[in-house]
Every structure is written in structure tokens, then in C-alpha cells.
Amino acid sequence: MSNLTALAAARERALPGSRAHGLGGVRCAVYCSQEAHYSIMRAAELLGIGRDWVRAIPLDAERRMDPSALADRIEGDIHDGITPIAIIATAGTTLTGAVDPLDQLADVCERLGVWLHVDGAYGLPAAATPATAGLFLGLARADSVTVDCHKWMFVPKACSAVLVRDPRALFDVFAHDEAYVPHADGVLNAVDITLEYSRPMRALKLWLAFRVHGAAAFRQAIARNCEQAQHLYGLAAERAGIDVLSSAPQLSIVPIRRIVPGCPDVNAHNAELCRRLQSDGRVYVSPATIDGEVWLRPCFTNFRTTTDDVELLLSLVETLGASCGDHG
Q1: 175 - beta bridge partners?
Q2: What phi and psi, each to the nearest 5 degrees, are found at residue 321?
Q3: Cβ atoms < 10 Å from Cβ of 321
Q4: Per-residue pLDDT tens over the stretch 306-321
Q5: Is the overall model pTM greater than 0.85, yes or no?
Q6: pLDDT at 194
Q7: How far apart, in whole angstroms, are the C-alpha atoms of residue 7 and residue 47?
Q8: Residue 206 CB burial class (10 angstroms; 0-12, 13-18, ≥19)
Q9: Can you list the domains of the chain with their CATH numbers?
Q10: What is 8-35 written as a DSSP string?
Q11: Which InterPro entries match (predicted)?
């Protein structure tokens, strides 16, 4: 919902009046990394932009959106009469936790006059910790930012937020003047800045979490999770038969996979290993397909996770992996 809200505002800014008269055949596009969240595709569908006009920009060596490739694609589209709606940077991709180079992307947006949206659903809270704050350089230049507080901030689903540089941008895309919705002079009504009319008070759980724990507790837990990810990466990189990505984790996601010499189908082996880990129940990991290969995707976002848990995970990967034999 948050990404949809932000992109609706970006569409109205790029194509004023489109909420009233539609796109009218105007060709327009949004731009994101090849590993952006599927909610971007869904938002493009719902907003009438169309999924075919979501431009997937190639990645750099650290699996971040390539700013040069982005600029080239936008300039080519403008030359062809296509209107850029927004650049969607990802601050913590779902597959690997990569943070797009926000400051460089903001330079492209500023030069070409395009809305910059930062999808920080997973990773944005890490901007508040000293060890990872540098990854978010340029965040303050964004036109809109989203964060899912239920991912890394001690609260249950669902609790998501969208922040905008100019609050009027939300009013422009959502406000209605209806006789049955009272509008007091000078008072902003939430119905005028969101897609929903009646809705639960989702913010209460986050407010309570801050009141009970305090911001320092959030920062400490997030920093600890990132340290746990680095610990797992270091341990796995040294183990024979365990493969890791070429670059260390930026946040708290650490893709790993088991390599078995002579195994006819390593992907099937790792898919089966993931199923056995889930069935075992002592740890939980999800599978991920990265560059056509099946990986295990440990993601540390729980404040209760300990170093012992990290080491147990790697031990189980080895022992349960051995029980899979040389096949899936």
C-alpha cells in the first residue's frame, strides 16, 4: 500500500490531472533495479502505467541499481516521447539486502526532473545505526520514502508508513470534497492523503513500541542483526562446501548455498535442504533464486536472535545437507 501511495503521488506530479482524466494514451514509465520488490510491478498495474513500462535497470557488482544504466535508459525514453514517472530506489532488496546508491540516483533525478522514491520497506531502519548509516547517503533527497515497521521494528503486521517531502503531493492525488466527509478549515483530514477511508489505527502499535523500548533499543537490535549477518557470512565463507556471494552483506540478509561435488542438480539439492530446514523447525530460512540458482536466504530481523542461533543455522545446513545426499 505504501509504495502504491507514493507512486500515485509521483504519477500526478509527472502528469497533472491524470487522476481525473486518466493517462489518455500517454506512454510513461517507472524505473527500478532488477531486484526491486514485486509491489512496484503491482502498483504500476493498478495505476494504469502498466507492468510492461516498469524498466528493470541492470545491477552493479554489489547488486545495486547502476546509475549510469539508469540515466541512459531514461534519456532514451525521453527521446522516444515516454514520460518518466519515478525512479524507485531500493534500500534493502528482498533477495540480498542491497542498498541502491541513493545519492547517485538522486543526482540523476535532479538532472532529469524525475521523482525519487525510496522503497525502504525492509532496510530503512538501518539508516539509524552508525555502522550502516553510510549506505543511505542521499536518503534526505528523496521525494518519498516507505518503510514496513513490522519487518524490523518490534511490531506485528501490518504497520507500514510513507513519508513525503511535500505533503501537498498526497493531497493532490487523494483529496475529495464530499458532502458526507466534514472538512474543517485548516485541518488536514487523513482521508485526503490516503487511499483508504475507514481504517484501523495501525500507528498505535508503533507508538507503543517506541514508548516501551525507546529508539536506542531499535538501533541496538538492528546493529546486532547486521553483525550477526557478517558473522554468518564470515563463517560460511570459510567452510568447505558452502558458497556465499562475492560481496559481504550490506544489511542482514546472507544468501548461502551448499555445494556438493558430483551432485547432478545443485539447485534441487538446496531446494530440498531448505524444505528440511523448515520441517526441522529449529531455524527458519526461505529459498531465493539468484541469477538462476537456488540459495538459502537467512534474514536476521528479530531482536531475540543470538550468536548461538547463527552458528546453529550453519551447523544444520551442514548436517541436514549431508542427509540429502548428492541429490535433491
Answers
A1: none
A2: -65, -40
A3: 22
A4: 999 999 999 999 999 8
A5: yes
A6: 82
A7: 8
A8: middle
A9: 2-209 (3.40.640.10), 216-323 (3.90.1150.170)
A10: HHHHHHHSTTHHHH--TT--EEEEEETT
A11: Aromatic_deC, PyrdxlP-dep_de-COase, PyrdxlP-dep_Trfase, PyrdxlP-dep_Trfase_major, PyrdxlP-dep_Trfase_small
